[in-house]
Write a structure and sequence with these properties.
It is built from six helices and eleven strands. With 251 residues, it is of the alpha+beta class.
Length: 251
């Protein structure tokens, strides 16, 4: 930390804490995600190392948060990324204008196209993992702690699915496969979240929600005020069959 100063904490999550930081040489601002080498929870350090490796591979996209470097002290492992001051998509008002919704969705589609083309599945697309630029000028995909590299159709069935349950695709809940098509389902869930200000599935009974996602044949309810074009987009994202999702490009 000899070349930078840690500022206020702006977020804490499953994979560590995030703070504003300042470079001593020029006063520039960036964000630093940190995990304590001795105090971090099991899996946090592994997830941070995974995020460092993945971001070095995919952050060339203008719609993925920019990787700025990494370092370590005797107490913490640190990832440096660009600082985006506009909050997250989860912080948006539920009455967000559809023109703004389209802009943010286009950014996410572009980000996922780039990430998938580089052989990576994000595995945790949701509003909380998308940061908004200053003045609402676009958004960027962040938090690659759950991300994984893949080949072929995607990741094989896993003992523990990656991501946040209410945004997971049916095949992930069933522990069958987690590939690019699963990110597309999560994108559709994130659009619903932006429009409603709530998770894509109602209620607080997690077990019941997971059963509905994985085995009921249902999809999240489409917001009524969505345009016909928006409904068509959601319908393509939220097809339960992975090979039909996103226009049928995942067979």
């Amino acid at each position: 930390m000899g070349s930078w100063i840690r500022g206020k904490c702006i977020g804490k999550g499953a994979f560590g804490s995030v703070s504003v930081a300042f470079r001593k040489r020029d006063g520039s601002i960036f964000a630093v995600k940190s995990v304590g080498l001795k105090t971090g929870l099991p899996g946090q350090l592994e997830a941070l190392e995974n995020e460092i490796r993945i971001l070095q591979r995919v952050s060339s996209s203008p719609h993925v948060v920019t990787f700025l470097g990494h370092d370590a002290t005797c107490e913490q492992r640190n990832l440096h990324i660009e600082y985006l001051p506009g909050g997250t998509l989860a912080d948006l008002d539920a009455d967000v204008d559809e023109s703004l919704l389209r802009k943010y969705t286009w950014c996410l589609v572009s980000a996922l196209r780039h990430v998938h083309a580089n052989g990576v599945v994000h595995c945790d697309v949701k509003g909380r993992n998308v940061l908004v630029g200053a003045g609402g000028a676009g958004c960027k995909l962040v938090d690659f702690g759950s991300a994984a590299e893949f080949s072929g159709e995607g990741l094989p069935a896993a003992a523990t699915p990656r991501g946040s349950p209410l945004w997971m695709a049916p095949e992930v809940i069933r522990r069958e496969r987690q590939g690019p098509a699963a990110d597309v389902w999560s994108l559709g869930c994130t659009v619903v979240e932006m429009l409603t200000g709530k998770p894509p599935w109602p209620g607080s009974a997690a077990v019941e929600a997971l059963s509905r996602i994985g085995f009921s044949g249902e999809v999240p309810e489409f917001p009524r005020r969505l345009s016909e074009l928006g409904r068509d987009f959601l319908e393509k994202c939220l097809r339960r069959e992975p090979c039909r999702r996103g226009g049928g490009g995942f067979c």
